[in-house]
Amino acid sequence: KPVEPIIDALEAEVKAGNIRYYGCSNWRANRIKAANAYAKSAGYMGFVADQPLWSMAQVNPEAISDPTLVALDDDLYAYHVESGMAIIPYSSQAKGYYTKWAALGLENLSDDLRAQYDNAVTRKRYDIAQEIMQRTGYTINQIALAFLMQQPVTTIPVVGCKNLDHLTASMSALDVTLSDEDFSRLQAAK
User: Fold this and answer.
1) How far apart are the C-alpha atoms of 113 and 97, rounded to whole Å?
2) DSSP conformation class of 89
3) What would the mean pLDDT of 180-185 be, rounded to a whole number?
4) What is the pTM of this model?
5) Was domain 56-188 assigned CATH 3.40.50.720?
6) Which of 126, 130, 174, 188 has the greatest number of CB atoms lying within 10 Å of its CB?
7) Where exactly does CATH 3.20.20.100 map onto the chain?
């Protein structure tokens, strides 16, 4: 589907006073670039944020059953860093992958959850996070959210909470700052 009518429709809503800003969700880097290039050429603001699937746990793309979902990949990440466009990731806690792993053990996670997130990067980051937890007393959830919030581009994780305790636990990540070394180790885990 062409991007121009989408941007035109969103800009019409801005001009009508119905919205102030707009973003996209589940778009690949080349499509966002095309949309924002068109917006710029037309004198529009363009997208100010993007909402991809992203967490500290690396998703296995082949396990994403819905073809309309877009996980943040290297191209999309590079575009965000280069452009400064904010990221508002959904599934930022990887469906509780790390928290459940820490509490139950990897072998006790559901087959579906393991299929989505079990890989070398996710395991390496888990091991690094365990070291950070031992040194700092932070929870694995705090570390996973802080990892996103400390990215070199504005990142506002969408969290999933079933109760007030979950919300409070997630909000406590706002008080966590990973050391430059810890952040770099997590970021470099490949």
Assistant:
1) 7
2) -
3) 98
4) 0.93
5) no
6) 126
7) 56-188
